[in-house]
Every structure is written in C-alpha cells, then in structure tokens.
Design brief:
With about 950 residues, the chain is mostly beta strands. It has 5 helices and 65 strands. A 4-stranded antiparallel beta sheet has the order 3-58-57-56, with no helix packed on it. Strand 6 and strand 7 form a beta hairpin.
Length: about 950
C-alpha cells in the first residue's frame, strides 16, 4: 500500500497571512491547495488481511496471544538448552536510509541529543546526535519480541517502553475479528537513561491466556511530579502503578472491564486524562478518576472507536481530542479550554478538504491517528492520519505534508502518521513517526513547515521479499516503502532506492542478463525493468491472456495492469533460470487457483506471451510458486494455495533441450494435486507458504505452512514423484522441535540437502536431518538469530554470487531490512563473497583472455546422459586431470587429459558410476585449480 498525496503548496500559501486566508470561509480556504492523488483503494487493509491469512488461528480468525506466547516460551527453552548452537552470522545489506513503521519517539529531557525510537517489528533504536544517525539498541538481541509501541520518561529520568502493536481496523470493532497483530512482551524500564532495560515482571504476558492485559501496550504516561505514578493504556483497560511499575491495578473510578484504553496523557498541573472504552475520564490527584463524558451538550461524547488526546505542555487547561467512526473516517476534532470540563468541535469529518484520515474512498483512523499541541501556542495543534495537518485559532486547518514521494521536496512527509513529538525545550523542532520512519522539522512554527527524513541507519524496513543478483546487489518488496534496490553507489554504501513505489512484492534479478529485473506491487501488478532497475513499467509485461479484465461492454479485453482473478495481495512470482541452456521460466498465480508461465520474460523487445499451465480444482488463491527439475531433468512447476493444497505440474515444456523450447498445452501437462489432508494428515485448512525441492534428489519435497493454532508446520516427502507419495512432519521432538509457529519460507541447502533453513515468525531456524536408519531421520532444529534477534523473516533464498555454486543465503526480514549469510558458502579461494564497489552489472562470470574456466554441460546431468566438460584455457595444457569430488570431500573420479589447446574445447566426462547427488569438478591448470559444481540426477 502506497498512498501518494501531493499537495501543491503555492507561494500564495507560504507568504499569505491569516488575515488574507480568513476571507475563505471555513475549510474552503484550503481550495488553494490542490490534492493530487495516486491512491491504492485498499490502504493498509490489504496488507493486514494478507498477514492475517498467513498468521491467524483458523478456529478464531485472529492471531491468539496464547499461541504466540507458547511459541516464544518454547524458543526460550530451546535457546537455553542449545546455547552456542547458532552458527550463522548475518550481514546487513540495506536499506540504511528508508526506515519503517514507527509508533514511538522519545527525546531525553536530560540530554536532547539522546533519542530513542521504537519500530513496530524492528525493536528499539538509539541516536546520540539528535536523530542524525541511529544504531540498534543491544537489548534487541535479548528480548523475546521486537514490537515497540510507546516510550515515556519520568521526571527522575527513568524510561519506560511499552510493547505490542495491535491493529485490526477493517472490522466495525476496533479490536475485533481479523487481528493480524504482533503481540508484545510487556513493559520494560530503564533506570540508567536508556542504556539498559529490564522487564517489569508483573507485566509479562503468559501462555494459555488470551484475555491477559499486557500483550498490547497502546500508550503510557507518567505523573509530572511523582515518578512512581505510571499509567498504562492497554487493549484491556487502563492500569496504574504507584511504585514505578512494580505492581499494577485498576485505578479508582475506572472499571477493570472498561475495554480498550486508547490513550492516556498527563498534564503539567498533575491532571491525568484517559480515553478508555467509550468514555473520557479525568483525575485531578493522579489516583482516582471521574467519568467526564456523556450525552449532555458540552460533554465529551461517548465514542466507542479509536480516539487520541493531547494536552498543552504550557497551558494545561487546553486539551484536544480526535475521534473516529467505526469506518475509520474522521468524526470530530475537539477542544477544551477548561481542563476537560467542556468541549467544542473545531474540526468535523464531513468529507471536506480537511480529511486527514481519508485516502479517497476509504478511511483508516483505526490504523494511523495521532495529535500533539504546539508548545509555543496552546491554540495550535498537529494532527496526523494518512496525512499531516495543523489547526490554529488564527489559521484554521492547513496541510503540513505533501510533495508526493520526492524526498528532495522540502514539504514531503511519508504517509500514515503514528507519533508527533515536540522537542522539550525548542518548540520549532518536531519529530513525526510514520510508515516511512522518522521525519523532522526545525521550523514547526511556520504556517508550512519544511521536513527532512531522519532515517540514517534506522534500519527497520519491513520486507515481504528479496532477490539477489550475481554481483551481490539485492532488491526487495516492502510494506508501504515500495521496492527497494541497493546499488552500493548512492549516498552511502547500503542506501536503498525505491524503484517502483506502492507496496512492494516479490522480486528477481536475472543471472543470464543482470540488467533485467522483476518487481511487483500489491494485487498482481507485475513489473519488469530492462535497465538494471532504472525504470520499471506495468505495461509491456502482461499480455491479454493473463490480464484481460475488466472487459468492456462488448466483452473485449480492457487490461488494468494486474493479473486477473484477484491474485494474492503480495502476489507470488519466481524467475527460474538455467544459465547453461539460456532458459528462463517466469511463473505466477492468481485468485482462481490458476498458475501462469512465460518463457519470454527476458525478451524486453516484446510483451511476453503467457500460458495457463494448471489450476487447482475448486479454486483457492495461489499463495506460493516455485520451479525445479524433476528426476528426468525436465522443468516442473510447484504451487501452493491458501487452502492447504499443493500442486506439481510436470511436462510443462516441449523441446526443452532443443534450444527452442515451447510451453505445453494445459491438457498435456501432468498435474498432481495434494490436499491439505494428504500433507498434514488433517482436513483443517492451512495457508501454504512455500514448496521446495531438493536439487540433488527431486523426490524430496518440503512444504511449509502458516497459521497459529497447530502443532506441525514443516512437512517432507521422500517419494513425492512416485505414484503413492507420503508426507511426514519434520517438526522434531522435545528440545529439538521447532516451536509451533508460522513458517513463511524454506530453502533446502544446495550444498548440503540435509540442511534446511526456514524463515519464521521468530527469525531464522535451521533443521539438520540426521540419518538414524535406512529411511529414518532425526530432525534437529535450532535458532540462527545471532546478531539479528527474533525478527519475522518472510522470504529466504539461496543465490550464487560471482560464480555458480558459490551460494549465499539471503533473507528479507519484516522489520530489519535485507540481510545475507555466507556461513555455509565455500571459503576463498573457491568463492569470493565480497560485495562490490559499484561498477557495471555482471551476469554469469565471463571468461577473459587471462581466465581459465571449467563448466559441466548439461547441468544438472540427467540419467543416462554423458556430460561434457566445457574447458576454456588461456594457454595450452598437457598432462592435466579432471578430479571429481563428492560434497563430503571424497574423491570419486579422476579423468586424465593428455593435451588441451588454448581456447574452448569440450571433454567428455564419464559419470555413469556416480550416484545421484552434488559434485565438484576440479581441473589443475598451470598450478591453478579451476572448479565448478554439477548435479547428477
């Protein structure tokens, strides 16, 4: 979801005084600001529904707190029992300039250069130079969750951090069905200025309890003169601590069952203001509260939906509130000038020009809603929703953000505002937290302040997907920050560039032609770049076979740039290439259970022709796709659906090895469909998140599932291509078992097929298959989250770098950007994993006059086929050998070469006696060893 709001802030607005503006009646004064919208109609709704489908307990329709807590506790136990079992090291790949959804910002009152910021899934971050640079707080490695929701500081300097972001929003109940939230882990307290934090034990959520009050801390406040009085607004009610957070109880006057506490603020006169359930409460002594809402004229209205409060830090009688309808649209902005006794409306949600919560056809005040009072003017406020606005008694309502998506525009602020924090001593400085990270103005008192992004090294971007090029570049799709590419040549080495806008989705970079890249936006808007990501286009990639709808009155195609039949919000795609045969297969799926393929994705001179090669019976939305070779060395396509089914499509290509392959008709494709019961042993519907095949033995398939509320999430078959395939759970047992949580993606290590790497709700987990009998295994799972923490990992891939066979693990995290691990990559000199200084892109490594190279062709080697070694030499060689090693290091074959001329020659290699598996061919040339890997099928 990307909401583009471009305000043309004219010179008239920038220079005209309030005296001139008052000639425009009411909100009509904003007619001088023309709003250019390029808006996605779903807003954040589509993203939340997508997460919910993958994560929810199907029995309840929500992510249940008890399910999440049990998984975390299991992870705690395993990590304690397996201390030191994390062998993977992770490297950050960017972006270090983008940021991500931020709901908490704190400026240290004792040192305003010291700031803290909280990401909803990337944890706590620190700045020591007033937000110019950020670094990850070391406690992120220790906490069981990384969802930060609020930060406050007591008069004595103590800092409190609330955790857990609960957003549902698209139902009529603000916290109703369809909750896709990431529960928190209670409240943390620092007594040393934020250097270290400790969990307040009585706020720790516990397993087996879906009604406990500490999983979602929505807001917190502290008494202005008594540092022991702490207030916590949770999704259950308001709670009070009188001893600095050690113990908590419901305060006098507020029922324990009051419902969601939406906000709590403390005024400088000691009054505490609370919005909980449908009511407004006030305390004048900090301990007991009185309900001040009601139906009488002047009272705060009884409003059951989301709402926020703000109080002037200099004039505590000035209080403001913003309320919404159940639709998420603006209801009212209210002002009290007598400390909350009476209220009057200063802004109405009548659909006029002032409409900060609307995105054009939808509203989302349940998702982004915040308000703050200008410290320099108690009758001026900032209001944040999708966009950012100000109100003052002099100027009425004015927009504060605009500029489309251009960071160079001084009026640009990313959409979806969640926090507004003024500097404690300089009212001209204000920080805003939103879906794009952190923005700052240093002239907040202006009618139209200017803004700058403050995201340097604030590495909290939420990725759905990742792809890597042959030279180490990465590109990935994000939540609300577009498709980000790192090129290693921009403002900093790991800076990212948004190359496609919108909510990003699945991505790929060609190994055959690295200038060709693929990206997508939400709802199947597939895009292709012919020039290394400099430009992407919707047009020219989908033909009318796959994009015909909506048809016009005559029934003719009227393409809209999206895959037909409502594909998944984050539409699965995959580019599979055989660089030796110059073959590229690009696959996607849609909401009707159809799987589509094109062989012309790399031909940028034309619109590729798309073919439907299979369809799930009885529909279902395609949730994942993959491509592999079968036991005969032929391409097969794999697909999973959101109803638990898996489909294997074989014989999809004709004349595959002729140099001119074509796509089989759908009727000629060999289709095999597995039901959810075939895979899991239960008929309960599940969301299939990935389907992977062992490249060394295509009979081995692993299927992963989403959805909390189950016991098993990873299933393996060792005879999937047989007539009677069987799947078994490889969840493991006891201290070796994977916690019961959604597994979003999995790769089978190409260099060691008995090692599986999974991206999960709690980071990366590795499974080692330890053979205990002829066909039996133990499944040993361990967390691999050293130096990244328990960050959700939505995509994990294994891609070559520099040369084929030098495989690197890449992950797209949902809260800490893109990363890689070379822990299992063959070390130098076999492989060079260095990231490049920027230069021209390269595909598969080309041989120069000074290079020697060996490659096995075809690769993989099908059964009953004798391969050849394609050897390229700079100088003639005599008396050499080709040695073949198993991946275990065992020498299995030596073939003598009497003479070899300079240039290219093809030398037959006798592999008839080799069993199926992965091998390394090594040739020694003038005291230099050249090597390549190949697969025998």
């Amino acid at each position: 979801m990307k909401l583009k709001h471009s305000f043309v802030i004219t010179a008239f607005l920038l220079t005209t005084t309030a005296a001139v503006l008052q000639f425009l009646p009411g909100n009509d004064k904003l007619e001088a600001l023309q709003n250019k919208h390029e808006i996605e109609e779903q807003g954040i709704k589509g993203a939340l529904e997508y997460l919910n489908k993958r994560r929810m307990n199907p029995q309840t329709g929500s992510v249940e707190i008890s399910d999440v807590m049990r998984a975390r506790k299991k992870a705690d136990i395993m990590e304690a029992a397996k201390s030191g079992s994390s062998v993977m090291q992770w490297e950050f790949l960017g972006p270090n300039n983008v940021g991500g959804r931020t709901r908490a910002i704190l400026i240290d009152r004792n040192n305003t250069n010291h700031m803290l910021a909280g990401s909803v899934s990337g944890g706590l971050w620190v700045s020591n130079d007033a937000g110019l640079n950020w670094q990850e707080h070391p406690m992120n490695q220790e906490r069981p969750c990384l969802s930060v929701s609020c930060l406050i500081q007591a008069p004595n300097g103590d800092i409190y951090m609330g955790t857990g972001e609960k957003i549902t929003g698209w139902s009529n109940d603000f916290y109703g069905t369809g909750n896709s939230a990431f529960p928190g882990c209670g409240i943390y307290k620092s007594t040393d200025g934020g250097n270290t934090f400790a969990l307040l034990e009585n706020t720790e959520p516990t397993p087996n309890n879906n009604t406990q009050q500490w999983a979602y801390i929505i807001a917190m406040a502290v008494h202005p003169t008594n540092s022991n009085l702490i207030y916590a607004a949770t999704d259950r009610s308001l709670y009070l601590s009188t001893d600095g957070g050690q113990n908590w109880s419901s305060p006098e006057g507020i029922p324990a069952s009051s419902g969601t506490a939406y906000d709590v603020v403390a005024a400088t006169n000691g009054h505490i203001h609370v919005l909980t359930g449908g009511h407004y409460y006030r305390s004048t002594d900090g301990l007991s509260f009185v309900q001040k809402s009601g139906a009488d004229l002047g009272n705060f209205p009884v409003v059951s939906d989301n709402k926020k409060l703000a109080v002037s830090p200099t004039s505590p009688n000035f209080i403001y509130a913003i309320t919404i309808y159940s639709s998420g649209c603006l209801r009212q902005v209210l002002q009290s000038t007598d400390g909350g006794d009476t209220w009057s409306e200063i802004g109405a949600g009548a659909g006029g020009i002032f409409d900060p919560l609307s995105g054009g056809g939808y509203c989302q005040g349940w998702y982004d809603l915040c308000i703050a009072v200008d410290p320099a003017n108690p009758q001026r406020i900032f209001v944040g929703g999708i966009t950012l606005w100000s109100w003052s008694a002099e100027d009425n309502w004015l927009p504060l953000s605009g500029g489309g998506e251009d960071l160079s525009n001084p009026y640009y602020v990313h959409v979806d505002q969640h926090a507004i924090v003024f500097h404690p001593y300089n009212p001209d400085i204000v920080f805003v937290g939103n879906d794009g990270g952190i923005f700052r103005s240093v002239n907040a008192g202006n009618v139209a302040p200017t803004w700058i992004a403050m995201n340097r090294n604030y590495n909290v971007t939420q990725f759905y997907a990742i792809a890597a090029g042959f030279d180490g570049r990465v590109i990935g799709g994000t939540q609300d920050n577009g498709t980000i590419q790192t090129r290693f040549n921009t403002e900093s080495y790991f800076a990212g560039i948004d190359v496609s806008g919108g909510d990003g989705a699945y991505t790929d970079i060609s190994k055959i032609n690295p200038d060709i890249m693929f990206a997508a936006n939400q709802n199947g808007r597939l895009r292709r770049s012919p020039n290394g990501g400099e430009s992407f286009g919707y047009s020219g990639f989908l033909d009318q076979n796959i994009d015909c709808q909506p048809t016009n009155a005559a029934g003719d195609c009227n393409p809209d740039g999206e895959v037909d039949f409502g594909p998944e919000f984050i539409t699965p795609t995959i580019l599979w290439e055989d660089v030796y045969n110059n073959l590229a297969v690009y696959v996607t799926g849609n909401g009707a259970g159809q799987v589509w393929l094109t062989l012309e994705a790399l031909d940028v001179s034309k619109v590729p022709e798309w073919f439907k090669i299979g369809q799930f019976p009885s529909g279902g939305t395609v949730s994942t796709v993959n491509v592999a070779r079968d036991a005969n060395g032929r391409v097969m396509v794999l697909a999973g659906a959101d109803n638990g089914r898996v489909m294997i499509l074989r014989n999809v290509l004709l004349n595959e090895f002729s140099g001119s392959p074509s796509v089989s008709s759908e009727s000629a494709v060999n289709k095999k469909v597995f039901s959810v019961a075939d895979i899991t042993g239960s008929s309960n519907s599940r969301y299939v998140t990935s389907v992977s095949v062992d490249a060394s033995n295509p009979q081995n398939m692993v299927v992963t599932m989403g959805n909390y509320g189950f016991t098993n999430y990873v299933f393996r078959s060792t005879n999937v291509l047989s007539n009677s395939p069987v799947f078994t759970s490889i969840q493991g047992t006891d201290d070796n078992a994977l916690p019961a949580m959604p597994v979003y993606d999995l790769v089978i290590d190409a260099d060691n097929p008995n090692r599986l790497l999974a991206g999960t709700d709690l980071g990366v987990w590795m499974c080692e298959l330890v053979q205990t009998g002829a066909t039996s295994f133990d499944y040993i799972w361990s967390a691999q989250n050293q130096n990244i923490g328990r960050i959700p990992v939505f995509r994990i891939r294994q891609e070559p770098i520099g040369q084929l066979g030098c495989n690197v693990i890449y992950i797209g995290t949902h809260g800490k950007g893109m990363m890689r691990s070379t822990s299992f990559t063959f070390p130098p000199p076999s492989c060079n994993t260095d990231l490049p200084e920027w230069g021209s892109a390269v595909g598969v490594q080309q041989t120069t006059d000074a290079d020697n190279e060996i490659a096995i062709y075809p690769n993989p080697v099908p059964a009953q086929v004798q391969p050849v070694a394609k050897v390229t030499l700079a100088k003639p060689v005599s008396g050499s050998t080709i040695s073949v090693y198993a991946v275990t290091g065992q020498l299995v074959l030596v073939q003598n070469i009497e003479t070899a001329v300079a240039g290219i020659q093809y030398i037959p290699v006798n592999v008839a006696q080799l069993s199926k598996g992965l091998y390394v061919a090594v040739m020694e040339v003038n005291n230099q060893k050249i090597a390549c890997r190949f697969l025998v099928q």
